[in-house]
Write a structure and sequence with these properties.
This protein is mainly β. The chain is about 5% helix and about 45% strand. It has one helix at about 1-15, and strands at about 30, 35-45, 55-60, 65-70, 80-85, 85-95, 105-110, 115-120, 125, 135, 145-155, 160-165, 175-185, 185-195, 205-210, 215-220, 225-230, 240-245, 250-260, 265-270, 275-280, 285-290, 300-305, 315-320, 325-330. Strand 19 and strand 20 (about 265-270) form a beta hairpin.
Length: about 325
């Protein structure tokens, strides 16, 4: 009897107050990775959307990986990158100008225990970084140089591409560093262009997402709220707003941005220990609703509104699940519109 009561209490603690919401079952669950999943990024194959790839990080200090999954959730071995030192977060950008005549899609991820970020072209998976770009180099304390979150930003006015990087630990101001990616003889260099981003000092900053079209960067200050800044360094470092503070149970985590051609859109943000997601409007960031998608302890998520075949006719939402896998939801099932 005591064991039974204890099990009920544990289940209640895991579920949280909001997770009494009905569960929206995933379209599918991916194959498991060897170690510890963290963050996904969706690459849309513009020529053949049904051949799109979901990349997901798997954390381990000596044999971490960025695993490639097809839209059936199966690992694509020849597109996966392994033998990494704690890959944390991953992001994708399209049509990066490698030279005057060549534009490519790129994937970037943080390699925490080597204090660097990595850059590959996709889908051919060619490294472009000469082994990695060191980050937070001006910090003398190595603990302040361990990168976690990353988001790529492409300025729609001039085509310049940047990496915005967060870390495991950082100061109250200038927690984030922004690097400009520049082509160089078939490879790429990364140049620090600014430091910005307020931090509460409570917990950490990991999850980031950039709205390229509107020029905003959002990030989770895990213990206090979602902060919003300008992504373009020329527009300064003043915080635009902070929101969502009273809507999360504990850690505010993964952020995904769903955008539509008419300008509508939604931010989907993980309430990690409550195992739910809070939805906010793209423009004014007003709260819309909370969803239970069945995942546990979600660190990272990503979304596309592009049609990806019969399973995902109006888009795909991917979220990390704390059982070494990722959940794929047809975006229709979230009923955002």
């Amino acid at each position: 009897m005591k064991k039974y009561i204890f099990s009920i209490l544990v289940a209640a603690a895991l579920t949280g107050c909001k997770n009494s919401l009905p569960e929206i079952k995933p379209t599918l669950v991916t194959e498991k990775t060897p170690h510890d999943t963290d963050d996904p990024a969706i690459w849309v194959n513009k020529k053949n959307p049904e051949q799109s790839i979901v990349f997901g990080t798997d954390k381990d200090e000596t044999n971490g990986g960025v695993y490639a999954f097809d839209l059936d959730g199966k690992i694509i071995k020849d597109k996966s990158i392994t033998n990494l030192s704690y890959p944390n977060n991953v992001d994708i950008e399209y049509d990066f100008a490698l030279n005057d005549s060549t534009k490519i899609d790129i994937m970037m991820f943080t390699e925490r225990e080597k204090h660097q970020i990595r850059l590959y072209s996709i889908p051919d998976m060619t490294p472009l970084d000469n082994g990695g770009f060191p980050v937070f180099e001006d910090e003398t304390d190595l603990e302040l140089r361990r990168p976690m979150g990353i988001s790529l930003y492409k300025n729609p006015e001039n085509g310049k591409v940047y990496a915005i990087v967060g870390r495991k630990k950082g100061p109250i101001e200038n927690y984030l560093y922004q690097y400009k990616l520049q082509p160089n003889a078939g490879k790429v260099t990364a140049k620090l262009v600014r430091k910005f981003g307020a931090f509460s000092g409570n917990k950490e900053i990991e999850a980031l997402v950039v709205d390229d079209a509107l020029g905003h960067v959002y990030y989770s200050d895990e213990g206090v709220g979602i902060r919003k800044f300008y992504a373009d360094p020329a527009k300064g470092n003043k915080q635009i707003s902070i929101f969502g503070s009273d809507l999360f149970n504990r850690d505010i985590e993964g952020i995904a941005l769903a955008t539509y051609t008419n300008g509508d859109g939604f931010l989907i943000v993980s309430d990690q220990q409550d195992h739910t997601f809070n939805i906010f409007k793209r423009g004014d960031n007003s709260f819309v609703k909370t969803l239970n998608l069945g995942t546990l302890e979600t660190d990272g998520c990503d979304v596309t509104t592009e049609a990806l075949g019969p399973k995902y006719p109006n888009g795909l939402f991917v979220s990390m699940n704390d059982e070494k896998d990722f959940f794929f939801h047809s975006l229709d099932s979230l009923k955002l519109r």
